[in-house]
Amino acid sequence: MAFFRTLAAAELVPTVAGEGVTLRTPQMADYQAWADLRSASRSFLRPWEPIWPADDLTRLAYRRRLKRYVREIEQDQAYPFFVFDAEGQLVGGVTLSQVRRGVAQTCSVGYWMGERHAGRGLMTKAVRALAPFVFTQLKLRRIEAACLPFNAASIRLLEKTGFQKEGYAREYLCIDGVWQDHLLYALLRSDAVG
Ligand SMILES: CC(C)(COP(=O)(O)OP(=O)(O)OC[C@H]1O[C@@H](n2cnc3c(N)ncnc32)[C@H](O)[C@@H]1OP(=O)(O)O)[C@@H](O)C(=O)NCCC(=O)NCCS
């Protein structure tokens, strides 16, 4: 049953193709590559992410993660993607979450890159590829991003892709176990995608 639900989610969301990157919904078959990459990148990612649950990298927790993804996609709440390079290698992930319809028509973007793949320009390409999906297919009009004020790589990525700084939110998210202030960025449908 869970297997069929996972398949269904993958089919609900199209594969998004960018310049030298492909984004698609996570599948059970990605588990080993995902767990290996996350495990190898643990200390690289740790300062920028919520604390990982103790069992996060287990197959069971991954299965639960996929079930949550299916539910969120079906309910138009979130759209998770894995990012693959031109060789088809899993390099990272990017998730559209907190979809708000009604008078907001907005979502949040979050991303991570495996340490060994960072600095190759791949997340810039992934975010550029995702923007038309958000604005044209999901018909949202705004993508929000929050990052730590000292996350130079993330700030550079957002600025390169056309996001504009909109504010500063105090104790906005609990990152690495600490409630930390964040810079708030957004890209509007009416902005040129960088
Ligand atoms: C942020 C992150 C996703 C960027 O992915 P990436 O594929 O490495 O990004 P790109 O290579 O497309 O672009 C990164 C840019 O930041 C720059 N950069 C990287 N590290 C930097 C640093 N320490 N100081 C200044 N600039 C830096 C790169 O030079 C590049 O800019 P350029 O093209 O002008 O040279 C990746 O670094 C990462 O996963 N970091 C840890 C987790 C994280 O920060 N997640 C986001 C939380 S908001």
Automatic annotation (TrEMBL):
SUPFAM superfamilies: Acyl-CoA N-acyltransferases (Nat). Pfam families: Acetyltransf_3 (PF13302). Its EC number is 2.3.1.267. The keyword Acyltransferase applies. InterPro entries: Acyl_CoA_acyltransferase (IPR016181), GNAT_dom (IPR000182), N-acetyltransferase (IPR051531). Keywords: Acyltransferase, Transferase. One of its GO terms (cellular component) is cytoplasm. It is an enzyme of class 2 (transferase). The keyword Acyltransferase applies. Coiled coil: none annotated. It comes from the Bacteria. Residues 21-190 form the N-acetyltransferase domain. GO terms for molecular function: protein-N-terminal-alanine acetyltransferase activity. Belongs to the acetyltransferase family. RimJ subfamily. PANTHER family: [RIBOSOMAL PROTEIN US5]-ALANINE N-ACETYLTRANSFERASE, GNAT FAMILY, PUTATIVE (AFU_ORTHOLOGUE AFUA_3G00765)-RELATED-RELATED. This is Ribosomal-protein-alanine N-acetyltransferase. It comes from Methylopila capsulata. The lineage of its organism: Bacteria, Pseudomonadati, Pseudomonadota, Alphaproteobacteria, Hyphomicrobiales.
